[in-house]
Amino acid sequence: MKIILVGGRKKMDFLAKSLMNKKHEIVMINDDEAFCKYLSKTHGVPVYFGDGSKPYILSDANIKGADVIIALTPSDADNLVICQIASEIYKVKRAFAAVNNPKNVDVFKKLGIHSVVSSTYIVSMMIEQMASVESIESYFSIDQGKIAVMEVIVQKNSTLVGKRLEKIAFPKEGIIGCVIRGLESFIPRGQTILEIGDKLVVLAPFEAQTKIIELITGGASR
Fold first, then answer.
1. pLDDT per residue over 76-94, tens digit each?
2. Cβ proximity of 79 and 116 under 8 Å
């Protein structure tokens, strides 16, 4: 895919590396001339110096018909403008906007930008969960933070040890998608018996996460 990255520093640099590793075609636009030189030297892809919220800069970068544009500037207003111009004028297929103020997520969606990422909101939830329970090995969110994917370890004091899944009153909002046991990983069934040290890959909405974590860990925290 052809992906346009606009604005940002660490976020842009990180995304560029990640997307290039997946063989995507990357074009970058940034309003910091020295940083543009760094990006060009580091990544070896087209980098354009200028304000990405200006149509002529987007035109110079030849974004027309690109698959994706990702607006990462520190200004929510600029990110909105970038996505709207890219979608409406240059027919970019999908527009993603980073939102610095979580309160703007709904506003952006109402204005037609459906792929909105509030990094502050999502990261704050991740930190809150991972800092409170040592049994969580990894945690990330999807669908704007509405759904979490967690790897939670079954502790020795958990009431789940030795029980079949079908006998566990697991909250209906969540699901155990995978069990990692030593070097093995498998999709659990009703007859699966949980053991100490099992790593459960759980999908759950935000409002059910605390209840599920407490059930798996036996309430174990730092």
1. 899 999 999 999 999 998 8
2. no
> Could you tell me the two tokens for 34?
């020295």
* Structural domain range at position 143: 122-217
* Nearest Cα residue to 95 out of 110, 78, 112, 76: 112
pTM of the predicted structure, to 2 decimals: 0.57
- Please tell me whether residues 109 and 147 are part of one structural domain: no
Residue owning tokens 């240059």: 90
Residues 6+ apart with CB under 8 A from 124: none
Nearest one of 134, 129, 133, 95 to 115, comparing CA atoms: 95
Pair (143, 102) in one structural domain: no
Q: Residue 222 — very low, low, confident or very high, per pLDDT cuts 50/70/90?
A: very low
The model's pLDDT over 100-114, given as tens digits with 9 standing for 90+, comes to 777 777 777 777 775
CA dihedral 19, 25, 27, 28 (to 10 degrees): 10
Residue 181 pLDDT greater than 90, yes or no = yes
Q: Which residues are 136's β-sheet partners?
A: 152
